[in-house]
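Progress report, Aim 2. The chain analyzed during this reporting quarter is listed below.
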Amino acid sequence: MGVNLNYDQNMDVITQQAVKSPVEIMADPERIGDATDEVEEMEEEEEQTGVDGFAEQVLRRPDVLAALQGRLHAEMLEQLPASVKRRIKALKKLQLEATNIEAKFYEEVHLLECKYQKLFTPLYEKRGQVISGVYEPTEVECDWESDDEKEAEISADMKNKMKIEDVDSNKKQENEINKNDDTKGIPNFWLTIFKNVQMLSEMVQEHDEPILKHLLDVKVKFLESNPMGFILEFHFSPNEYFANSVLTKEYEMKCSPDEGDPFAFEGPEIYKCKGCVIEWMKGKNVTVKTIKKKQKHKSRGSVRTVTKTVQNDSFFNFFTPPC
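Predicted structure tokens for the chain:
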């Protein structure tokens, strides 16, 4: 009925469509062959199919299909009796009313998310403290049975022995951990998350990884109204790459049917986003790269080297979205 506004599932709220490039198609072992033969086969197929083949190609285009469907729809309506046309108009008015109610529903869903986010916040704060090493969880807080532990297989005798030995063994283990393990928090927690979520992993480049190791926490702040929206906050530890401790991206949403096409309404829609300025340290900006090109003078034949700065693929381009 609309978009899911759960921040964990839509952290960036950016949907990218991947189109297989000619290079990728050529790299596909099943597609590799003699290019000349492939062209000849395609030409022969076109000659054989003729008009039917052309029609099939045209009908594969979404814009052509949409235009044809619109025209057929209009022609179909024109052929209907006046009394039926009148009733269809009444249905459209009812649908518009339902759409406006749906918009109100989504507004209230957003307010409900804002309300419950306040309940989640203390849990997320503690999560951040555990990840960064600021807080060490107690034994009770760590009492979580792993998937491979099967209590049913442990005999009653073993349980009794464990109870007797647990107190001493826990103390010994705790002392050993304190003596030998100086690991703080959960290293590379967010980098691991990013690399294991498909949409995010596609954005993260190899040169981004050392920076993302400094990412301590990702937070969301909901904007209740005027306008509806939310802000993503990325908290970093001090690092050699940029001076910012927090990078932000703000999204504004609208939740009202478009007057020109009210029946296309599918829930809250992001219509505006704003990034932030990253204060890069000298020579550490991974969003740009310097390339050198040789240019030859037409008349003199002399060659000169031109240096040019161009955009580089990077996760951190996320914070400079197009206007």
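Strands lie at 215-223, 228-236, 246-254, 269-274, 288-296, 303-311. The domain at 102-136+186-288+314-319 is CATH 3.30.1120.90 (Arylsulfatase, C-terminal domain). These observations will guide the mutagenesis work planned for the next reporting period.
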